[in-house]
Design a protein that fits this description.
about 190 residues, about 60% helix
Length: about 190
């Protein structure tokens, strides 16, 4: 007679993704997070493209046609920030989420919860950034480098812009850490770095 307690295998392979919206909000699946990044990037391409249309329509002829010069500077700054931090960088991280685990034989990204967190910082950062267009004095008007003499045109929105840029930077750094940690730690056993 055995005194060992019976063991039960509690694997979770039989569970599918969570139903509804919670699948996307709480996911740690690298493909779902990659899809979220790519969809967010596409949305930001459209927002930045609309800003580019405002810029190009003003430059269609010499002189003032549609917007005043201060709003033109705001559109130029916001277009650059949205396209660099909201479209290009999330697109790269989204593609990395989709491709890197498959390329190196990993089951998932190395830090899946941080992966989710790094994505969900982005919508809040861009909501904050785009909301500066509706503050007193308008949005930032200092170029994508936030050039100090030009930033004096910004008004009361500049602290929000700085916070949004810090949030975007933190998100992209967390995404980069996750990519590097995945490549270094989750490679297939016979795969080397060279």
């Amino acid at each position: 007679m055995s005194t060992a307690a019976p063991t039960h295998d509690h694997d979770h392979e039989h569970h599918g993704p969570a139903p509804g919206l919670s699948r996307w909000i709480f996911t740690t699946n690298h493909k779902d997070i990659g899809t979220l990044y790519l969809l967010f990037s596409l949305l930001m391409f459209f927002v930045g493209g609309a800003m580019a249309l405002v810029i190009r329509s003003e430059l269609f002829q010499p002189g003032l046609q549609i917007v005043d010069p201060h709003f033109f500077n705001q559109m130029t700054t916001m277009h650059a920030l949205v396209m660099i931090f909201g479209a290009v960088m999330p697109a790269f991280v989204g593609l990395a989420n989709w491709l890197i685990p498959m390329m190196i034989g990993a089951p998932d990204m190395a830090l899946p919860r941080m992966n989710n967190w790094s994505f969900w910082i982005m919508p809040f950062a861009f909501t904050l950034l785009l909301s500066t267009l509706f503050t007193a004095g308008g949005g930032p008007a200092g170029g994508w480098t936030l050039y100090p003499p030009l930033v004096l045109q910004t008004g009361e929105a500049f602290p929000f812009v700085i916070l949004a840029v810090h949030m975007m930077g933190a998100s992209s750094i967390m995404g980069a850490i996750n990519i590097v940690a995945t490549i270094l730690n989750l490679r297939a056993p016979t795969m080397t770095l060279m």
